[in-house]
Design goal:
- There is one protein chain.
- By secondary structure, the chain is α+β, with helices and mostly antiparallel strands.
- The protein has two domains: about 70 residues, Arc Repressor Mutant, subunit A, CATH 1.10.10; about 120 residues, Ribbon (Umud Fragment, subunit A).
- It is built from three helices and eleven strands.
- A hairpin with a 5-residue loop joins strand 1 and strand 2.
- The longest helix is centred in the first third of the chain and has 17 residues.
- It is elongated.
């Protein structure tokens, strides 16, 4: 469905859903959408979600949750590419598997440059605050499996994605925090982990 075929209310709802996703890292519940749209009944909000789903803007997953597939083109003034926003990584499931992707977020090609494959990840905690990555920020990650010393990487350790500074010597790899909080310590590994990509940009939490 073309966005011009959506009702005005459905377009307003999609903007609300996008804003909640960017601010809070998840889609709003039906009741939260109801309140944001100033409705008295959750049924009205549910009907808008149904319209957006039928139009291909949202997708309902097997577990009953939704993810955002596309945004309103009329809200985009720059040339963009859709980048997957990855949520919590399910145990044993590849990071970019469908169940881990919360939404597709339009990102300017000036940031996500052509020729690479990218994903977005929400930073948790303050282990990289001195590197300019604060709790709740989105990091844009270029997918690749190797890194050079000193580069900021997203690594998968025990099925958990972590953002750290990569340092390798011989068979030992250290994932180093860059934090003002002394509680964060290096993670020392051999080669039994996977680099998912390099952090190329940070999008501050709104």
């Amino acid at each position: 469905m073309n966005e011009l075929e959506l009702s005005i209310k459905a377009r307003q709802a999609l903007r609300c859903i996008r804003e909640t996703l960017m601010r809070q890292g998840h889609l709003p519940s039906v009741r939260n959408l109801m309140k944001a749209m100033d409705y008295r009944s959750p049924r009205s909000a549910a009907l808008l979600i149904e319209e957006l789903t039928l139009g291909g803007f949202l997708e309902k997953r097997k577990d009953g949750t939704y993810r955002m597939l596309k945004d309103l083109q009329s809200d985009m003034t720059a040339r963009t590419v859709d980048i997957p926003l990855v949520g919590a990584v399910a145990c044993g499931v590849p990071m970019l598997a469908e169940e881990n992707v919360q939404a597709m977020i339009p990102v300017s090609v000036e940031i996500a440059k052509p020729g690479g494959r990218y994903f977005l990840l929400r930073a948790v905690g303050d282990s990289m605050d001195l590197a300019g990555i604060e709790d709740g920020d989105l990091v844009l990650v270029k997918q690749q499996a190797v890194a050079n010393n000193g580069e900021r990487v997203v690594a998968l350790v025990d099925d958990e994605a972590t953002v750290k500074v990569y340092q390798s010597k011989g068979n030992v790899v250290m994932l180093l925090p860059n934090s003002s909080n002394p509680k964060h310590q290096p993670i020392i590994l051999t080669r039994d982990f996977r680099i998912q990509g390099l952090v190329v940009n940070t999008i501050p939490k709104i």
